[in-house]
Amino acid sequence: MSKRYRITRAMQNDGDSVQTISLEECKQYFASKPDFTYTSVYTVVGATTMSIEGEFFMWSFGDATIPFRYYEGDIYVSGNNEAVIPRMLEVASDLRADVVEG
Fold first, then answer.
1. Is 86 helix (H, G, I), strand (E, B) or coil?
2. How far apart are the first and last CA of the chain?
3. Are 87 and 10 in contact (CB under 8 A)?
4. Averaged pLDDT in 10-residue chunks for the chain of 102 residues
């Protein structure tokens, strides 16, 4: 079973409001990282080809490309490749956010 992680500020309650990560904030942050590129369509190639529309920040690590997907104020990433864990924790720290499994 694959693990999925969510980078979020949902647990950071400042009074009555919950801060979310904005898309603009993500675009600025990831644009400053040379190992990330932005795409609005993520294509998975296997026995069949599937394209998913959305906000994707693709992390290049060796021969692998791992999507960090922005969706409704959070960033989601698969934990299938263990190399993503330290990078994900770095991103969460830089964005002043928490990491939640699931």
1. helix
2. 12
3. no
4. 87 70 96 97 92 96 93 94 93 96 85
Q: How far does Cα 86 stand from its chain's mean position?
A: 13
| pTM reported for the whole predicted model | 0.89
In this structure, what are the phi and psi dihedrals at residue 93, rounded to the nearest 5 degrees? -65, -45
Structure token pair of residue 95? 């964005």
Contact (Cβ atoms closer than 8 angstroms) between residue 58 and residue 36 = yes
* Residue bearing tokens 């693709």: 58
In 1-102, alpha helices (H): 23-31, 84-94
C-alpha 31/C-alpha 63 separation (Å) is 20
CA-to-CA distance for 66 and 82, rounded, in angstroms?
A: 11
